[in-house]
Design goal:
By secondary structure, this protein is an alpha/beta fold. The protein is built from 16 helices and 22 strands. It starts with a helix and ends with a strand. The structure holds NADPH dihydro-nicotinamide-adenine-dinucleotide phosphate.
């Protein structure tokens, strides 16, 4: 009995439990990210920002001001003064007066100012990243890890060049151009300001910066940084405003150099307005860049590059890889893996550190994206849009993929400037090159292949200012950036980025 009892108790201890629902296979992940919002409590935005002229903040002559809003919530962040033509006049004459002293400063000393600005950007990095994300809608992860560190890196890099300009001009005498008008767009407000200001100042120029209407805040914080760095008054002015401010600035008769980043339409207008005048001009305009995937590429790696190529900064990127060219033999595999990968993208609160795709910058830009996407459907392309809950307020567009796209479709030709990818196919290397070059633009391209020789051959045949191999959207202050054809002319970054700011005799 005791044995039997033991047996019972043993068998009770090892009893097979009543049947339960089968546990999910261990390979599936059934957890989600907890919210990880960036704290904003230490941020002190002013209620109103004025124009930055002659080293101080001043009210605009006409008293105009507009609200700048958070595109993720539509809430007002601050009132920002808008410069009119009288303010443009003042800023240009102040800059003209400041020029001789700045130009005459020992180059090493100029470099020290740039170095100080770089250090102050680093010191205020967290604040700058949050404001960039609030004002523009971009994910905090990108503002924190890309925009702000790269802006500091540009000032560091050009600080080093200030006393070495003779190496850029091969020993020939060079002088600064003079008063520079610099107009930047809303997709990388601080970074574009750094791209423009750092080389201009290193060469001994003075500059007037006009930030975009929807994203003026980090440029105004950069103005505070110029004050903190004790940059001599008038060397940098910041004039927030709209297109009319920009138009007045580039047409001002006492401006010596214009640097513009923005749409091809406005770029052409500026070029026409400056025709016949001895004003240096660089234009960094739009793009419809081809990202080319060959059958010998590592497909998983390519899929990551395709995703960062088009969904980085909501696709508000001039060099976005918005035309995906895939070799026919791997089309199904690429599209399937890409669509799977897209399911993992997290769209929403830009201040959440887990967010991959933030808010669209403005209602106007959202309307433009929607119009082009609707056109893609009408023209017969197959649309897939990520099904994800979007916030009720703010401007949002879920990542979208178009297949069955023909090269004549508007979504294959026009810059959408949003999280929308058009997939086209090719059979041979020659056809890939021909299709990639069949664009009015020529800003950037990506090549995905296992074969080094093929990558070099294709890169040489592409009419693109930048070509990335087995990667995409990599930026570095030491590398020149710029386009061909309707993507503009002139280079920013690297030693080449100094030339447009110098008059070589
Ligand atoms: P714009 O070219 O209008 O804006 C770029 C900058 O130029 C802004 O600071 C803008 O001021 C200013 N500006 C506008 N009109 C004039 C003018 N006549 N003279 C001088 N400066 C002017 O671009 P949008 O913001 O309207 O965007 C439209 C399209 O352009 C996008 O959908 C996208 O396709 C493309 N784009 C390309 C960019 C790039 O990096 N290549 C960047 C931004 C846009 P304000 O902000 O007040 O209009």
């Amino acid at each position: 009995m005791s044995v039997g009892g033991e047996t019972r108790s043993m068998s009770a201890g090892n009893a097979i439990p009543p049947e339960e629902p089968a546990a999910p296979p261990r390979t599936a992940l059934h957890w989600d990210y907890a919210p990880a919002p960036e704290a904003t409590d230490h941020l002190r935005l002013a209620e109103r920002y004025e124009l930055f002229i002659d080293g101080g903040f001043v009210a605009p002559a006409e008293g105009t001001a507009r609200a700048t809003v958070n595109p993720a919530t539509e809430e007002t962040l601050a009132e920002v003064a808008f410069a009119g033509s009288a303010d443009v006049d003042t800023a240009v004459s102040v800059a003209r007066r400041a020029l001789p002293r700045w130009e005459g400063l020992a180059p090493l000393e100029r470099g020290k100012y740039l170095f100080r600005i770089a250090r102050l950007i680093q010191e205020r990095a967290r604040e700058l990243a949050i404001v960039e994300s609030l004002d523009g809608g971009k994910p905090i992860r990108e503002a924190r890890d890309i925009d702000v560190p790269l802006a500091a890196a540009h000032f560091f890099y050009y600080a080093g060049w200030a006393d070495k300009l003779a190496y850029v001009t091969a020993g020939r005498r060079a002088r600064p151009r003079g008063v520079c008008a610099q107009i930047v767009p809303w997709n990388f407000p601080l970074l574009m300001a750094a791209w423009k200001l750092a080389p201009a100042l290193a060469c001994g120029n003075v500059a007037i910066l006009k930030p975009a209407e929807t994203t003026p805040l980090t440029a105004l914080l950069l103005a505070e940084i110029c004050q903190e760095a004790e940059l001599p008054p008038g060397v940098v002015s910041v004039l927030p405003g709209d297109g009319t401010t920009g138009a007045a600035l580039v047409r001002h008769p006492d401006v010596d150099k214009v640097a513009f980043t923005g749409s091809t339409t406005v770029g052409k207008e500026i070029q026409a307005a400056l025709a016949g005048r001895d004003v240096g001009l660089t234009l960094e305009l739009g793009g419809k860049s081809a990202n080319i995937v060959f059958e010998d590429a590592s497909i998983d790696q390519a899929v990551e590059g395709i995703v960062s190529g088009i969904f980085f900064n909501q696709g508000h990127v001039c060099c976005a890889g918005s035309r995906l060219l895939v070799q026919e033999s791997v089309l199904d595999e690429v599209v399937e893996k890409l669509w799977q990968r897209m399911q993992r993208l997290r769209v929403g609160d830009p201040l959440d550190k887990n967010t991959d795709v933030g808010a669209i910058n403005s209602a106007e830009q959202l309307a433009r994206i929607e119009e082009l996407v609707a056109c893609g459907e009408l023209e017969g392309a197959r649309r897939r849009t990520l099904s994800t809950a979007l916030p009720e307020r703010g401007y949002w567009f879920a990542p979208t993929l178009f297949t069955d796209v023909s090269p004549a479709h508007r979504i294959a030709v026009e810059e959408i400037f949003g999280p929308v990818l058009s997939v086209l196919t090719f059979r041979t290397q020659a056809e890939a090159v021909e299709k990639a070059n069949a664009s009015v633009y020529g800003l950037a391209a990506g090549i995905w292949t296992d074969k080094g020789a093929k990558a070099f051959e294709v890169a040489a045949a592409l009419r693109s200012g930048v070509v990335w191999q087995n990667t995409y959207n990599r930026f570095d202050p030491t590398a020149a950036f710029g386009g061909y054809r309707e993507s503009g002319f002139g280079r920013e970054g690297g030693p080449a980025g100094l030339r447009p700011y110098l008059r070589v005799s």
